[in-house]
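Regression test case RT-17, inverse folding.

Input:
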């Protein structure tokens, strides 16, 4: 981080920033310059392409017109020769004005042996039997274009077959034309000195070719030109470098309809781009001048440019960082790096579409870590985060590359298994996940084990859309938890009833406090010697409008897991304190009242502040409040537990450890914490009058409590024998149905008002008996 900061600080120094700014501006000027040059170059190329297309159209029209005249002349002679009235000479046709002028076209006729028998102009040769235009007519009747040969004054010969009365070969009619006639339309003002006009035969040889003032015959065409000539779909110009001059040209070709010849036109590349090159040079000179001005202006603007550039740089960096961070958070979990709910939803919808299209199956496995909140509450959120990260790594190692592991939030994960072959495949994956998660984790230097509950839903059996599949997998997960946790369950409609009841219970619980559906009962604690009530324990009850009385075992777990226990706990604490103050205002002696705290309440950051506020608002003295919690809190998060207990003791609040003796901690741990009361678990009281080994633990708790000056309270006393045993073993206080059940506030008030000072032993003078 420091290296980055030093680099940034170095970069914004004037001696670096000013040259850099000038460099960027220069880069922009030159980029624009070359950009304009490229545009100008492209425009020149487009203009050349358009010009060559227009030139080809004109050239085609000229050549086709001449070839049609030639073909018409040969067809006329052929018709004249082959008609039934016999032969007539060319002179007769010429006299009738049916032949073109022999200044340009020389018409000749040969017999079957190739001997010239008639001509409009005397010829130097008497036989054409060896010429290509004669040989080409022997096997078929066609319009044939002969190859021009020679230098200046070379002629092109065109021929057609003459047939006798029986259709046998009877010679040819030929038209000889000066080859240069076909390129006489070359205009330097249009085509330039490096342009091209030419006629190309089917054999890839030019019959005539002109570039500038140079006319040539019988040259082979450039391969690119020959290829384009054979492609009837070719409409764009090709780049060709051919001929003795080696000039680069854009060349267009077109096969002349009805004639075995291809018209070729070309424009010199360098010649056509000369204007663009000249403009580019001008742009470069202007860019050079602008560069000088930029350097001068950059030096003059100095500090202003530096400040502006630095501000914009910061804004761009912040905007880019925010955009990247937002994009990452939109589709990934920040803690584990797994896909989040949004990404999983998209992937699941895509997988459902593919499964529907290809008639495949898929499965959704919903995972929830068992007792994860205890890890958070006992070791802290840092350990919880470490656990989630390690679980994510293990889950990724359990699935295929095509599968998806996502974190939905909290300790909930979900696995998408596409292209599922059988239901057993999902079961095998679930078993593998159970095994790898069950391996020990090392958190905060200690070894811990956690388990996971898995619910599985399948497409299409358990749902055909994303919402149904995830909901049913979630329901199956709760079914796995209800089945003892650390297992997996496939979704089943029949088992869904209990899960829906739990969800309904949680929904009702969220509104119970606002609707006033909670109330408290109070159970007395009695002194074992005098039998007098020494304190009351507040017990929460829920009167559901539809379900009636809901016992704590049914709703406290839901409240703890959902976090609703915190506001409910505040209400219980305040209500109990108000009731205690009300008893004192009735003239009753000060009485200690006990309130139970769950782990979620105990480690809530606002616990101390809430207690202080409640004591102040109700007016109850702090030493009359006793807070109870289970001994499980003594073995986790020892430092946090000791800190919280010390803060409570500083307020003079009494501390009681509830349900002690269930095996979570050693008795020796009692001396580490500032406790006032230890309450023996009712499971130990139940068998206290049995064999000696059954009572040893209860006796040990009483003895240790006495040695530590703690008040020892026995819970769940239901018989006289239990009470008598505890009295003889010096237990301090008793609590249970042997005296009374938990009572409402009004009945508890009557109980307290009815106490007599003469009562000496366990309620006998009160007329109380076991319920």
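Golden output:
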């Amino acid at each position: 981080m420091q290296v980055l900061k030093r680099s940034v600080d170095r970069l914004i120094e004037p001696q670096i920033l000013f040259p850099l700014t000038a460099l960027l501006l220069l880069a922009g000027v030159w980029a624009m310059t070359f950009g304009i040059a490229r545009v100008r170059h492209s425009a020149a190329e487009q203009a050349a392409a358009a010009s060559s297309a227009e030139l080809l159209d004109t050239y085609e029209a000229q050549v086709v017109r001449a070839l049609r005249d030639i073909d018409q002349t040969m067809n006329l002679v052929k018709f004249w020769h082959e008609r039934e009235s016999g032969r007539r000479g060319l002179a007769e046709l010429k006299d009738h004005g049916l032949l073109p002028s022999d200044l340009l076209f020389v018409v000749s006729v040969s017999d079957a042996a190739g001997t010239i028998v008639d001509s409009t102009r005397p010829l130097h040769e008497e036989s054409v039997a060896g010429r290509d235009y004669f040989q080409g007519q022997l096997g078929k009747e066609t319009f044939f274009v002969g190859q021009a040969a020679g230098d200046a004054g070379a002629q092109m010969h065109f021929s057609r077959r003459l047939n006798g009365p029986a259709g046998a070969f009877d010679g040819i009619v030929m038209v000889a034309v000066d080859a240069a006639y076909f390129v006489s339309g070359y205009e330097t003002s249009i085509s330039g000195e490096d342009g091209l006009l030419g006629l190309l035969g089917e054999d890839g040889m030019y019959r005539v070719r002109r570039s500038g003032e140079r006319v040539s015959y019988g040259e082979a065409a450039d391969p690119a030109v020959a290829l384009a000539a054979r492609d009837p779909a070719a409409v764009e110009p090709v780049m060709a470098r051919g001929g003795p001059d080696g000039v680069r040209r854009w060349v267009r070709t077109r096969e002349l309809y009805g004639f075995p010849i291809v018209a070729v036109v070309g424009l010199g590349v360098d010649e056509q781009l000369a204007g663009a090159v000249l403009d580019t040079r001008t742009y470069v000179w202007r860019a050079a001048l602008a560069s000088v001005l930029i350097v001068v202006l950059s030096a003059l603007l100095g500090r202003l440019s530096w400040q502006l550039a630095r501000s914009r740089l910061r804004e761009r960096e912040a905007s880019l960082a925010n955009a990247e961070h937002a994009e990452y958070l939109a589709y990934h979990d920040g803690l584990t790096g797994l896909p989040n709910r949004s990404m999983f939803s998209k992937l699941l919808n895509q997988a459902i579409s593919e499964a529907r299209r290809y008639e495949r199956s898929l499965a959704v496995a919903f995972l929830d870590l068992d007792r994860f909140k205890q890890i958070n509450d006992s070791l802290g959120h840092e350990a919880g985060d470490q656990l989630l990260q390690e679980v994510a790594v293990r889950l990724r190692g359990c699935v295929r590359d095509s599968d998806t592991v996502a974190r939905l939030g909290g300790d909930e994960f979900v696995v998408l298994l596409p292209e599922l072959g059988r239901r057993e495949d999902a079961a095998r994956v679930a078993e593998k996940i159970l095994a790898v998660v069950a391996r020990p984790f090392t958190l905060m230097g200690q070894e811990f084990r956690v388990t996971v509950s898995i619910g599985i839903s399948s497409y299409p059996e358990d749902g055909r859309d994303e919402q149904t599949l995830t909901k049913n997998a979630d329901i199956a997960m709760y079914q796995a938890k209800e089945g003892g946790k650390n297992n997996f369950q496939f979704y089943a409609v029949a088992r869904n009833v209990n899960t829906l009841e739990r969800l309904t219970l949680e929904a009702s619980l969220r509104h119970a406090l606002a609707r006033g559906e909670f109330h408290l009962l109070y159970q007395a604690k009695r002194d074992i010697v005098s039998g007098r009530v020494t304190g009351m324990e507040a017990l929460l009850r829920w009167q559901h409008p539809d379900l009636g009385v809901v016992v704590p075992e049914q709703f406290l777990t839901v409240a703890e897991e959902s976090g609703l226990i915190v506001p409910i706990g505040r209400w219980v604490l305040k209500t109990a304190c108000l009731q205690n103050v009300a008893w004192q205002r009735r003239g009753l002696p000060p009485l200690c009242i006990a309130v139970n705290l769950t782990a979620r309440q105990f480690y809530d950051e606002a616990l101390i502040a809430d207690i202080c506020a409640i004591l102040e608002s109700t007016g109850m003295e702090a030493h009359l409040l006793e807070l109870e919690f289970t001994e499980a809190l003594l073995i986790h998060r020892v430092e946090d537990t000791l800190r919280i207990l010390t803060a409570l003791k500083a307020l003079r609040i009494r501390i009681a450890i509830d349900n002690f003796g269930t095996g979570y901690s050693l008795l020796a741990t009692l001396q580490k914490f500032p406790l006032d009361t230890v309450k023996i678990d009712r499971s130990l009281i139940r068998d206290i009058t049995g064999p000696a080994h059954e009572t040893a633990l209860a006796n040990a708790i009483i003895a240790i409590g006495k040695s530590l000056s703690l008040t020892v309270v026995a819970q769940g006393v239901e018989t006289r024998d239990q009470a008598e045993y505890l009295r003889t073993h010096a237990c301090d206080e008793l609590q249970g149905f042997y005296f009374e059940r938990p009572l409402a506030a009004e009945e508890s008030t009557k109980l307290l008002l009815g106490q007599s000072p003469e009562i000496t032993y366990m309620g006998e003078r009160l007329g109380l008996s076991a319920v």
